[in-house]
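Ticket reopened. Same input as before:
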Amino acid sequence: MVGDFVHPKGASRKVKIELVRAMPLDMPRHFRRVDWPAINVWMLVLILFSQTIGQAEEDRSGPIAKRLAARIDEDLEARLRVLKIKPSPPAGDAEFLRRIYLDLAGRIPTITEARAYFDAPEVDKRERLVDHLLNGPDYAWNFATFWRKVWLPQTEDPAFEGQATSFEAWLRYELAQGTSYDRMIVDQVTASFRPSASPRAGSPRSFLLAGQLRPETLAANTARAFLGLNLDCAQCHDHPFASWTRDDFWQLAAFFGPTPDGIRIEGTERVAPPRLLGGASVTWPRGENDWNGRFALASWIVREDNPYFARNAVNRLWAHFFGLGLKEPLDDLDTPDEMGDSLLDDLASGFAASRFDPKVPIRAIVLSQAYGRTSGGSFGDNQASDSLSRMPIRSLSGEQIYTSLRTAAGLSPRGPIEEKDGKFIALFRTGRPNLADRTVPQTLALFNGSLINELVHPDESPTVRMASEAPFLDGAGRIEMLFLATLTRPLNVEERENLTSQIATASAEEQARKLGNLFWALLNSQEFQTNH
Amino acid sequence: MNLQRRELLRLGVSLGVGSLLPSSGWFRTLAAQAADHPERKRSCILLWLNGGPSTIDLWDLKPGHDNGGPSREIVTTVPGLRISEHLPTLAQHASELAIIRSMSTKEGDHTRASYLARTGNVPRSDVHYPGVGALVAKELARQGSGLPGYVSIARPRAQAESMGYTAGFLGPKFSPLSVGSEDGSLTDLEVPNLARPKGLSEPEFAERLGLLGELDRRFATTRKAEVMTAQREAVDLAVQMMHPDSARAFDLSEEPNTLRDRYGRNVFGQGCLMARRLVERGVPFVEVTLGGWDTHNENFPAVARLSRTLDAGFGTLLDDLNRLGLLKSTLIVCMGEFGRTPRINARGGRDHWPGAWSLALAGAGINPGQVVGRTSPDGTKVEERPITAPDFLATICKALGIDHTKQNVSESGRPIRIVDKSAEVIEEIAS
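Engineering reply: fixed in the latest deploy. New output:
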C-alpha cells in the first residue's frame, strides 16, 4: 500500500502534484479504485505539512548557515594548529569580490558592480553581497551549470550534449524558485520515461535520457551523482575495495525496472529483486507505472538518515569552492577516512536541518574565514597543500571564461549563445573544471580565436571603445578602466608607471590600438584566467 | 614577413622560453641530418582502427572454414605468410611487417577495451592512467622541437579521454594535440587558431605577447599554483607552434599531389601523410584514427572498403618513410581495441571478440617478416603464445628504446610503472 513507505523528506508538493496529474492517465483501473482516497488524504497532509515548514524556512536558514560557517573555521583552525601553520590574512575587497562573483555568479563583476562594492561603507558588506548574489539571476544560471555537471557528467560528452540545454533550463527555473535540493533529485529519479507535453522549457527527464533509459546505467548514475558512491565495478563483479557486491548493484538497478519482479543480472540467468543498498526494506507501490520502483527508491535516497545523500551534496559544493572535496575522490564516499569526516558530517546534518535548502551550505562556506583568505603571500614556508591555510588558486570552466570575457568587454554576460560560442565553451570541457589544466588548443583559441579578437575590437567591445574614446579620462585612467574591467582591481604603482609611459604618449589612433592590445593581454593573463 | 628572430628572442626571454626557440633553418637541418644519425631518437606512429577491426579478415584469415566467410588471402613477399586480398600494398611490404595473431584480452566494451589497449589498465576512479601516446611523448621528448610530443589525428569526438586518448596523471604537457576528427572532413585537418587573426601584424602580436609576459611575470611574484605553471607552459608551446617553421608541419599543401593521391584523399590517408611530416620534425608520438570497424552488420563489404583505405595509407607511409630513411627510427603499430567474433552472425556481421585477435607492426626496433602466435582453425581461441595488452605495450616500449619498468608518479603520489610489472616483452618481436 502506498502509505506504507516512508515519504521522501520534504519532497513533495511537486511530486504529489505530478502524481495527481499522471494518475488518471497512467494508473490501471483497480489502482485508482482501491487507492485513490488513501492517496488523496496522504497528499493533503503532506501539502499542508510542507507549507508549514516552508514558512519557517526563511527564518531558519540564515542562522544555520552562520553556525555552519563557524563550525568550518573551528575545524580548519584546529587542523592548522596541529600542522603548526599560520593561516593567511583575509583577502582584500578586490580579491574577495572577484572570487565570490566567479563562484556564485559564474562570472567576474562589471566595473559598475566593482565600484559599488569598493565604495560600500557597511561592515557586513560581504554578507550583503552574498545575499545579493544568491538572490540574483546569475545564481540560477551558474548553479544550473554546476549541478548539471555533477548530476549529468555525461552531458560534457558530445554524445549527450543535447541534454545539457534542456536540463539546465529546468534547473534554472527550479533554482530561481528556491526549490529544495531533495525535491530536485526526486523529480529526476521519478521523471516519466515518456516525453511530457509540459509547456515549460526543459525537463528533469534529461537524467533518464543521459542514462539511456537503461536500468543498470541509471543505477550507476544515481549512485554516483546523488550518493557519491561509485558502483561501476560492481556492475560486473564485486567491488574490489568497498563492500558493494554485484548483487547490490543489480538490486539497485531493479528499481528502474517496470515491475517489482526484479531484473536479470547481465551475463547470468539470475534475477536480482529490488533491494536498497544496506538492505533496508522497501514497499513497491502498486500499479503499473514505469516510475513506481523509482518512486520507492527516491524516497529512500532523500531520507534524512541516508548517510550518503547530504554528505555527497555538501562535498561536491566544498569542491566547487575549494578545488578539492573534503573527501576525495568525490564519488567514493564509502571509503573510511580519518580526516574530514566529522566536518563533513556536521555540514551534512546542517544541510538536512535546513530542509535541504541548497543555499545554506553555499552560504556557510563562502562566509567562512577560510574562504575569505587571500590566495597570495610569500612561499617556501611549510605549507600542506590541502590545509586551506590560504585560498587555493583554481582553474575556470569554459562557461566561466566565456561569461567573464563578455563581462569584461562590457557585453551582457550571457548573450545569445551561437554555435561558435558553444564550441568555444566546449573546448574547455573537463571532468573537474576548477582543477583543469591548460592545453595548447585552448591557448590558441584564446590567442587567435574569433571570439577573443572580436571582443578586443573597439567596434565590438564597449569597454575598449569607452577606454579609448572617453574624453574625461587621462592616459592612466584609460588603462585603469581596462584593469578594472578584467582583473577587478586598480593599477599598482609599477603598472601605472610602465604602462602609462607606453600608452599615454601615443597619438589617439595609436593609443586605441595599444589599448586593444593591452586588453588582449589582460584577458589572456593568468590573473584573468584563474580564480584566485 | 616572418617575425624577426631578434624580436622573437626578446619575446622568448620575456615569456621564459628563450632557450626553446628554434633557430632559422633548424628544422631542415634536423630532418636532413637526423634521419641518418645513429643516435636519432625513435618515434611511434599508431594507426588506430577504431571500433574493433575484424582482424580475422585482415591478418589471420580462415579460408575453407565457415568462420572465414568470403574473405580471400593473397601471397606476400614473405614465404608462407598470407594476408587479406584487400591489402595488396602491404602484402608487398610483408618483409617489413611483424604480425601478432595471438592477442588475447578480456574487455569487450569499446571504451573499456580501448582504455586497456592504450593504458594497459582497466579504468579506475582513483588513478587516471596515461595512454601510450603520452607515456612515449614523455620518454622521448625532444628539447625545443617547437611541436607537441603527442599529436592525435582524426580522434573520435566522443569519449576520447575514457578511451585512453589522454595524458592522465602525466598532465597537460603530454596530452594530445588533436587535429581533425574521426568523422570530420579533410578541411578540418588542421590545428585550429594556429594563425594570427587576419589583419594583425607580427609586430603587433609581439606587442601583445610582451604585455602578457609582463603581466604574468608580476602575478607570479605573489601567487603560485599548478594551474599557473600549466598555463605558462601552454602559452610557451602555443607561441612556438605559431612560428612558421612549426606551423608548416601541419601544412600538407607542400607535398606533391601525386604523393597525396597515393596516401588516399581521405582523412586517414592525409592523416598518415601529416604523421610522416610530424615524425620527420621529431614528434615522438603521432596517432591516426580510422573509424568504422564496428561491423555488427554486413561485415564483409565494410571491411573490404576500410581495408583499401588502410592499405593505401599504411602502405604509402612505409614507402615514404623508407624513402626518407626514417623507417629505421619510426615504429608503426596498426591495431584496434579487439577483434570480432569468428562466427558470422545472422546479419552477415561479426560482433565483439577480445579473446583472440591480431595486429601488425613495422619499422623501428622490431624483427620484421614474421608471424607470432597462432589461433585455432575456427579462429575463436589462441592456441599458441597468448599476449596481453600489457605485454604488447611493454614490447612497444622495448622497440622504442624505453625501459617499461620505469616509474612515473600518479596524482596521489604513488609510483606507477610505465607498464605493469606483470608484463613480458615479446622477445621474438623486440630484442
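Chain B touches chain A through 50 residues (CB under 8 Å). The first helix of chain B runs from residue 5 to 15. Please confirm and we'll close it.
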